Amino acid sequence: MDGYVLGIDIGTTSVKVCVLSLKENVVVAEQSKDTQSNVPSDQGIDGNKQDVPKIISAINTCVAKFSKDLLQQVIRIGVCGQMHGVLFWHHRCGKAWERIEKDGTLIRYDVKPEQVSNSYTWQDNRCSKEFLNSLPVPDSHLQIHSGFGIATMFWMFRNRPEELEKYDHAGTIQDFTVSMLCDITQHYISEQNASSWGYFDCKKYAWNLELLDAAGFPVKMLPEIKRTGEVAGLLADTWHSIPKGTPIGVAMGDLQCSVLSTIEKEDDAVLNISTSAQIAYVVNQLEEKELMGPPKEKPMIHLPYFDGSYLAVAASLNGGNSLATFVKVLQQWILEFGFSVPQASFRQGMGEAY
């Protein structure tokens, strides 16, 4: 098959973009950029928020560096990103993004900060164990943890209701990006990202809507679920020379995509070491009892993968989280002294020390 696919990965600290040749199945061009998007949280080191406009700007910067001739041959766009996190937006005063044009031609989309919240990442620890225990038990085999989208929304609903009332949409940063590029007010989420939020029934491919509604949760903010691989919409306009009408898939989870791009044989296992660490392998068939709630403490969890299969994952988050917490404490101290050090400098210094 001729043509190219543009792939966008929105990570915790950086954005990576590549162009894949469908005919040769090789990456022909790639770019990356540190987003430097972390912002101070009113929860101190327990909070972890990121500036959405900076993330979107990093995406635009990366895509703009590819040659126009190459981008004109893109026939599909795929987006994945950091799982578990959540941001909020509304379209009451027009769409939550704006077109930046030059001579009538779209250059990029920019976020309207007054209509979009910060992104609360998977590293957000505002939900204490006591708070999590006060939430309804999910009708799912998957547990709920601090940093998971619905846990964060529950915390906002109970502690900052006036903040949550400003918005009517919720999604991951990658879900927001897909809606923006399609220029649509509908918002979708794949089962991969939905399962990372909690309160998602993998057997029914559905939210625990009745359970959440009974707890007073704002269920109308939840995105509609689409199967991984489905098209979420079409590129609304020519964007950095990529043709208008290019199909864009529903956003995927970065863990699943990292395994998909690494695995070579069906019985391979993949060890990922980055901000967190996981070892994972693909399970084509899973016994129904493994997907039945309520969730139990298990050393391994099963997450939706592709084509109805599951990813068996054993995760060890301590190493990356400990290092990230140490970096955040240092950044907080330096900010209090009136200075600012770019994230890239911290990452480089911490990486050398580590």
TrEMBL record:
GO molecular-function terms, A-Z: kinase activity
Boundaries of every Carbohydrate kinase FGGY N-terminal domain copy: 4-90, 107-260
Keywords, alphabetical: Kinase, Transferase
Range of residues in the leader sequence: none
One Pfam family of this chain: FGGY_N
Family: Belongs to the FGGY kinase family.
The name this protein goes by in its record: Carbohydrate kinase FGGY N-terminal domain-containing protein
